[in-house]
Amino acid sequence: MTLITRRNALITAATGSGLLLAGCTKVRFGDTLTGSAGFQRVLAQAEAWTLSSQRFLLSGGAMAREYSVADISPKFKANGTLYPSGEDYEDAVNEEFARWRLTIDGMVSHPLSLSVAEIRSLPARTQITRHDCVEGWSAIGQWTGVPLGLLLKTAGVLPQAKYAVFHCADNLEGEPEKGGMQAPGQYYESIAVVDALHPQTLIAHSMNGKPLDVGHGAPLRLRVERQLGYKQAKYVQRIQLTDRLSGLYGGKGGYWEDRGYEWYAGI
Ligand SMILES: Nc1nc2c(c(=O)[nH]1)N[C@H]1C(S)=C(S)[C@@H](COP(=O)(O)O)O[C@H]1N2
Ligand SMILES: [Mo]
Fold first, then answer.
1. Do strands 163-172 and 236-242 pair parallel, antiparallel, or not at all (unpaired)?
2. Residue range of the domain that includes 142
């Protein structure tokens, strides 16, 4: 049994790296994208990242289970914020996220700022995983995105950084039916740097082969597959590397954590 599981993991590993290489051929040299120094730096790191994630897999690193295309849920519920309020997000939708940037800053040696088009052009990983929400529902979906580890290697995480904090575009309105514990607030999340570097941790731009829709977090969301649904931050705009969570929002490392939920939320 263990052997079979292990074999599957290795096959997954091989497929994963194939995708990484295939992703490289899609890079559009000679257009405006080459103007971005950050984008070029990420590309230069891609091979080193492929090697390091392969090493992780071969050394038996724990992977979340991956499913087949036939397992994809016909309906994947959207939960929490379904459409961020405010004109800024509405404008961003109308202009197809042309001016949306993902910033990586804080305890890094080279802060990065990438457009959605740049992120879409980077080497990608595709994985089919099960999403588990604490509210008691699960769904299997296929996610495609750039490994967060590749972005973090490029940004150069400083040794003292312990957490990656994801700042989202939505203010989640109060939902009284959730026990009255919930007050409105900016959605955010955080994970440990070691989980951010895991090969299945992605900044996803596509779901089931299509660009993310608004309900599921367009244009960019986190997938951190060994943790619960509320860790999977949608509408991500900024990733901040830090050595402490106190002082950010409610200080407990996430919107739901600030309202009493567990921080690690492993599955
Ligand atoms: N920005 C943001 N991210 C979020 C939420 C949210 O309300 N806002 N809800 C979380 C919860 S509780 C779950 S279960 C998943 C739902 O993801 P989905 O809408 O793609 O199903 O997103 C998580 N990430
Ligand atoms: Mo959830």
1. antiparallel
2. 65-259
Report pLDDT digits (tens) over 157-200.
Answer: 999 999 999 999 999 876 555 544 567 789 999 999 999 999 99
The total number of structural domains in the chain stands at 1
Expressed in angstroms and rounded, the spacing between residue 36 Cα and the centre of ligand 2 is 36
Cβ contact 139:240 at 8 Å: no
Q: Is residue 56 one of the residues assigned to a domain?
A: no
Cβ atoms < 10 Å from Cβ of 65: 15
Across residues 6-21, what is the average pLDDT? 36
Q: Is residue 35 situated within a structural domain?
A: no
Beta strands in 173-235 (DSSP E): 185-192, 202-207, 210-211, 221-223
Instruction: Give domain status of residue 10, yes or no.
Output: no
Query: Does ligand 1 lie within 6 Å of residue 172's CB atom?
Result: yes
| CATH label of the domain that carries residue 186 | 3.90.420.10
Indicate whether this model's pTM tops 0.85. Answer: yes
**Which ligand has its closest atom nearest to the C-alpha of 231?**
1
